[in-house]
Automatic annotation (TrEMBL):
The active site is at 203 (proton acceptor). It comes from Carlito syrichta (Philippine tarsier). Belongs to the class I-like SAM-binding methyltransferase superfamily. RNA methyltransferase RlmE family. It comes from the Eukaryota. This is rRNA methyltransferase 2, mitochondrial. It catalyses: uridine(1369) in 16S rRNA + S-adenosyl-L-methionine = 2'-O-methyluridine(1369) in 16S rRNA + S-adenosyl-L-homocysteine + H(+). One of its GO terms (molecular function) is rRNA (uridine-2'-O-)-methyltransferase activity. S-adenosyl-L-methionine-dependent 2'-O-ribose methyltransferase that catalyzes the formation of 2'-O-methyluridine at position 1369 (Um1369) in the 16S mitochondrial large subunit ribosomal RNA (mtLSU rRNA), a universally conserved modification in the peptidyl transferase domain of the mtLSU rRNA. This activity may require prior 2'-O-methylguanosine modification at position 1370 (Gm1370) by MRM3. Essential for late-stage assembly of mtLSU required for efficient translation of mitochondrial DNA encoded proteins; methyltransferase activity is not required for this function. PANTHER family: RIBOSOMAL RNA METHYLTRANSFERASE, RRNA METHYLTRANSFERASE 2, MITOCHONDRIAL.
Length: 255
């Protein structure tokens, strides 16, 4: 599918300078082509045909997941100039690229307030203008929380994003449980980090424990939605929870 047929406008989003990062990434994919198994071959074929992969290359995003956040942001107005964003599980940095643009963290629009983006990941992240990266760092480690509080202006974020995913074991229930407990750990840090009225967006893999996370979000936020962006592969159980208006819950949550 050509880029112009993607379900939402890509051209509105200005290109970001990370061409050398892209070259490095594609070189790495190419060099792994030899001796691959059938499954790896299928993955590679799907990857190379994927319109969002192609669009990410054209738009200089570090990976296709940028389009998930772009779409969710376009529909739900999560980010705007001046906001402070904590991006958890930020590597390789595509969501941070979108966040930097949307909150004007690099100050490229002199007429809008300047926001702040802090990305955290277990993995190294290549530098990005307008973003601060804390890596390698485990979000669940109390020392990371301390550093996050020191780095965020005023010690608070207006938006917590989490696209975190533990290394998948392939055992669906186990992977689901691990991701839910990662999201719950992050949510447990919200009282320290998240500004009242703030937003929490996190990735989950749908499963039997999703209701636990949903309940917790409904207790703490005024509104909680489940969102599946088009860029999220249909065959994947991946869904996002979007919770808004932190600390301003009106209704009671049934037991
Ligand atoms: C799907 S990738 C994120 C992609 C990213 N949103 C982007 O657009 O570039 C998931 C990331 O979560 C990170 N992660 C998993 N567990 C983590 C943890 N406990 N602390 C920090 N990062 C974690 C992984 O290292 C991985 O880089």
């Amino acid at each position: 599918m050509p880029t112009c047929l993607l379900p939402f406008s890509l051209t509105r989003h200005s290109k970001l300078a990370c061409a050398s990062f892209q070259r490095l990434r594609f070189h790495t994919v190419g060099s792994r082509c030899k001796n691959r198994t059938g499954t790896e071959h299928l993955w590679l074929m799907r990857h190379l045909k994927d319109p969002f992969v192609k669009a990410a290359r054209v738009e200089s995003y570090r990976c296709r997941s940028a389009f998930k956040l772009l779409e969710m942001n376009e529909k739900h107005q999560i980010l705007r100039p001046g906001l402070r964003v904590l991006d958890c599980g930020a590597a390789p940095g595509a969501w941070s690229q979108v966040a930097v643009q949307s909150v004007n963290a690099a100050g490229t629009d002199p007429c809008s307030p300047v926001g702040f983006v802090l990305g955290v990941d277990l993995l190294h992240i290549f530098p990005l203008e307008g973003a601060t990266f804390l890596c390698p760092a485990d979000v669940t480690d109390p020392r990371t929380l301390q550093r996050i509080l020191e780095l965020l202006p005023g010690g608070r974020a207006d938006v917590i994003l989490s696209d975190m995913a533990p290394n998948a074991t392939g055992i669906r229930n186990l992977d689901h449980d691990r991701l839910i407990s990662l999201c719950l750990s992050l949510l447990g840090m919200a009282p320290d980090i998240l500004h009242p009225g703030g937003t929490f967006l996190c990735k989950t893999w749908a499963g039997s424990q999703s209701h636990q996370l949903r309940r917790r979000l409904m207790e703490d936020f005024q509104d909680t939605k489940i969102v599946k962006p088009e860029a999220s592969r249909k065959e994947s159980s991946e869904v996002y929870f979007l919770a808004t208006q932190y600390g301003r819950r009106k209704r009671s949550v049934k037991q």
